[in-house]
Design goal:
Strand order of the largest sheet: 3-2-6-4-5
CATH topology of the largest domain: FAD/NAD(P)-binding domain
Number of helices: 13
Distance between the termini: 57 Å
Structural class: alpha/beta
Strand content: 15-25%
């Protein structure tokens, strides 16, 4: 079997060094994409010595962490290829550097997340004359759904990025900045791509942090070559890197079909789409019909897969992934087996609530909207004065609902400033409320249809990727009376690795039979101790 990934086009224009060997790469693609395209599937080992590879490709899981140009624990998916890069998959010590005074930025409103919700909100606020700091960890605006393509500028993301560029005198777009948390004084602590500290101060905070994928922790889900569904989408769209051999897609939720469609468009025909959900019911089809555009979009995805003769196996789940020579052997319910090079799998989306939780925002739980989410009123206001949550952070609702949220909350912030929204914004917010209701109804129906329980696994199944904690270790801790999330963490280190539980939280909760909201503390991402060394 060939290497698992390849470039869609032969566009390599330089070489970089990985563990002493030269590999081809393309200027601007991520280091992780370059390594995968060169046939490097393992990026190091977990604490028990088992090879590990990238899982999310969006900086959350830390499974692609390498030493890059002498800086250890650098996420390869967040570093763009430049001439002369040297990468090592062997851990090293961090070099010393001069402590610098953190940069401070002032604005009227800080918006975290430059996807559809955050971008729409920032544009609406800027049009009303407010100064906006738009903070996002991606290199370009658009979020995951509108991620900038490697070969073209098109679609909703192109519209958003063009508008943001035109409004750059009113919107301070901080691309590539990660939010580490909110301080007691209300300031946001940020880190740029080099890990240097920045402080953002604003009267209002809008959290539009998007969504995270729900893991599918079947035995073997941590093997190199097994990635999240979203990782396949990011590799294909942002880097032009696609599976080179047979690929199997499995899990639940609309993302399963979005990724399958995108791969077919890129010239890759999945061997099958394994969907845990049943055939959509009449109620599901009715809900899609009432939300403008959703029914047509669903038909487009289904037609594309049928035309490409991609088998769709409904009410079917993968149960185990094993290494079989150079291939991955996947066992599924019904006695089915697949030998593939790449597996993409996840069980849907869940709200990214880490900043909201760290900032003290009240949370609510709704399994139809992805589980725990920020509790807000109709305007997006949270329990904390001056903090708003929009888009997927307030519940999984899709891109159209997120766009509506941005406009509605922008109007609320203008009113909170003691001003009257412009006629244009007032009309847009009124229309957005009506439109949002239709999409959220569809989202709840789809959420109920696509719900899938966590796999039971076995005692040897990895639950926490970072610390290589197994289901058996968590069960033994529970047998000793350490059955709560905090107790399980202290007893096993589950959730104490680099990703700080953002990847494994649902799996750990399922293993201990709990469904408690995750807790987050500063910093939300690992950061060097000298990032804010000169700050008082």
């Amino acid at each position: 079997m060939s290497k698992p990934f390849r470039r869609r086009h032969d566009s390599a224009d330089l070489e970089i060094e990985v563990d002493g060997a030269r590999i081809p790469a393309r200027t601007g693609e991520s280091v992780a994409a370059a390594m995968l395209a060169a046939g490097i599937a393992a990026f190091g080992t977990d604490p028990k010595g088992t090879p590990r590879g990238p899982a999310c490709m969006m900086g959350s899981c830390f499974q692609c962490a390498c030493t890059i140009d002498g800086v250890p624990d650098t996420r390869a998916c967040r570093v763009s290829v430049t001439p002369g890069l040297k990468i090592s998959t062997v851990p090293m010590r961090a070099p010393a550097r001069t402590t610098q005074v953190p940069v401070e930025i002032e604005s009227d409103v800080a918006v975290v997340g430059a996807g559809p919700a955050g971008g729409a909100c920032a544009l609406a606020l800027a049009a009303e004359g407010l100064r906006v700091a738009l903070i996002d960890d991606n290199a370009a605006a658009g979020g995951q759904i509108w991620r900038k393509r490697f070969d073209a500028e098109q679609g909703g993301g192109a519209w958003l990025r063009s508008r943001l560029t035109a409004a750059k005198d009113r919107i301070d777009h901080r691309a590539g900045y990660e939010v580490l948390g909110r301080g007691a004084d209300g300031a946001l602590m940020l880190a740029d791509r080099d890990g240097r500290g920045t402080i953002s101060r604003a009267r209002h905070l809008v959290i539009a942090a998007g969504a995270l994928e729900v893991p599918n922790p079947v035995p073997g889900w941590t093997l190199p070559g097994v990635v999240n569904l979203g990782a396949l989408q990011i590799l294909a769209k942002a880097d032009g890197v696609i599976p080179d051999g047979p690929v199997l897609l499995a899990g639940a939720g609309p993302l399963l079909y979005v990724v399958a469609h995108d791969l077919v468009v890129s010239g890759v025909r999945p061997v099958a789409v394994v969907d845990a959900a049943p055939w959509p019911s009449i109620d599901v089809l009715k809900a899609l019909w009432t939300a403008p555009g959703l029914f047509r979009q669903a038909l487009k995805y289904e037609w594309k897969l049928r035309a490409a003769r991609v088998p769709i196996l409904r009410k079917t789940r993968i149960e185990r992934i094993e290494r079989n020579g150079e291939a991955l052997r996947v066992s599924a319910s019904g006695g089915r087996r697949f030998d593939v090079a790449v597996v993409g799998t996840s069980l849907g989306l869940r709200p990214n609530i880490e900043l909201a939780a760290q900032a003290g925002v009240s949370l609510a739980h709704d399994p139809l909207l992805g589980g725990w989410h920020a509790h807000v009123d109709a305007q997006g206001a949270t329990s904390q004065s001056g903090i708003y949550a929009i888009g997927e952070t307030r519940g999984i609702g899709g891109v159209e609902a997120a766009l509506c949220d941005g406009v509605i909350t922008a109007a609320a912030i203008i009113e909170a400033e003691g001003r009257i929204p412009s006629t244009e914004l007032a009309r847009a917010a009124s229309a957005a409320r009506e439109r949002r209701a239709k999409f959220m109804h569809a989202a709840r129906v789809l959420g109920n249809w696509a719900r899938a329980d966590m796999p039971a696994g076995d005692a040897a199944s990895i639950v926490c990727r970072c610390e290589a904690v197994t289901r058996g270790e968590i069960s033994r801790a529970a047998a000793m009376g350490l059955s709560g999330p905090r107790e399980a963490k202290l007893a096993t280190r589950a959730g104490m690795g680099f990703c700080q539980g953002r990847t494994c939280h649902p799996a750990v909760q399922a293993a201990i039979g709990a469904d408690e909201p995750p807790s987050y503390r500063f910093p939300l991402r690992p950061v060097r101790a000298d990032a804010f060394g000169a700050h008082r």
